[in-house]
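Students often ask why inverse folding is considered easier than folding. One informal answer: many sequences map to the same fold, so there is more than one right answer. In these notes we will look at a single instance of the problem. The structure comes first.
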């Protein structure tokens, strides 16, 4: 696997990306990548379509089935913050995990509907019923879907602007959600034969982050790795994270966090060392790399 290009954090239309799962594979191949992980929020609904697309290629391209989980976590300074876990190669039929993902998807959809309803009531040209009707059946739904509706109606020029003005945590239409406690999420994924990586852990532009001491505690609880090379990490932050990964024996990864046209980040903009993927695969028994 030496010399290959691997992106371990991408999203499809099954959550808040704009490429279908098959289209995600096509986009990755066209960009010259050798492997990607599909990591939609709180769902594995895109796995089957993406896997079919890889098998039809017959070119040696590899797909890592995964998901991104939103979790609540102590920040080390007396507060609770949201962190994201990238979960790889777990058993998608694990009962505990299926129950939790079902709860999260239902809550995300209801949150999306209520935010859209409030904006419509205040005169914004958005239709909550249409937004919900256009979601895939098993999609969790999310703020980017409302952001796209605002772009399409001409209220804002981009999804990023929609978040900055209306949908972010400081916006007037933001609603909170109940995330999975991070220790429980790590435990569930480990029990399902998978591995977890802490996504963009020091991306302060996204909001409050956890301390290095919290990362160390998560490593003791079974966290496998940390995402270092990410578009929201500057070089000094990456150096801090590399040192932390080495200190804690965590697997270092790099990823674009690609969302299609919902963001300006291109697929493969950041990549993961082949050795890191090998270490993740060696830990996992829940499912297999495809291709």
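Output (designed amino acids):
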């Amino acid at each position: 696997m030496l010399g290959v290009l691997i992106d371990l954090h991408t999203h499809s239309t099954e959550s808040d990306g704009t490429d279908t799962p098959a289209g995600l594979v096509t986009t990755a191949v066209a960009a010259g990548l050798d492997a990607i992980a599909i990591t939609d929020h709180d769902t594995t609904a895109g796995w089957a379509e993406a896997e079919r697309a890889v098998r039809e290629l017959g070119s040696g391209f590899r797909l890592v089935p995964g998901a991104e989980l939103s979790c609540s976590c102590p920040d080390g300074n007396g507060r609770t913050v949201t962190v994201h876990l990238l979960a790889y190669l777990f058993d998608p039929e694990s009962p505990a995990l299926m129950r939790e993902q079902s709860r999260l998807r239902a809550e995300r959809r209801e949150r999306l509907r209520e935010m859209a309803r409030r904006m419509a009531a205040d005169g914004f040209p958005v239709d909550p019923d249409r937004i919900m009707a256009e979601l895939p059946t098993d999609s969790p739904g999310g703020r980017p879907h409302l952001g796209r509706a605002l772009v399409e109606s001409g209220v804002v020029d981009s999804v990023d602007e929609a978040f900055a003005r209306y949908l972010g945590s400081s916006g007037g239409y933001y609603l909170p959600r109940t995330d999975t406690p991070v220790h429980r999420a790590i435990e569930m994924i480990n029990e399902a034969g998978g591995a977890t990586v802490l996504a963009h852990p020091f991306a302060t532009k996204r909001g409050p982050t956890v301390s290095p001491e919290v990362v160390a505690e998560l490593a003791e609880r079974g966290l496998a790795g940390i995402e270092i090379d990410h578009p929201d990490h500057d070089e000094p932050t990456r150096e801090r994270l590399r040192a932390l990964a080495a200190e804690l024996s965590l697997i270092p990864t790099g990823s674009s966090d690609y969302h299609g046209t919902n963001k300006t980040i291109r697929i493969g903009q950041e990549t993961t060392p082949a050795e890191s993927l090998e270490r993740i695969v060696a830990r996992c028994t829940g499912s297999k790399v495809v291709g």
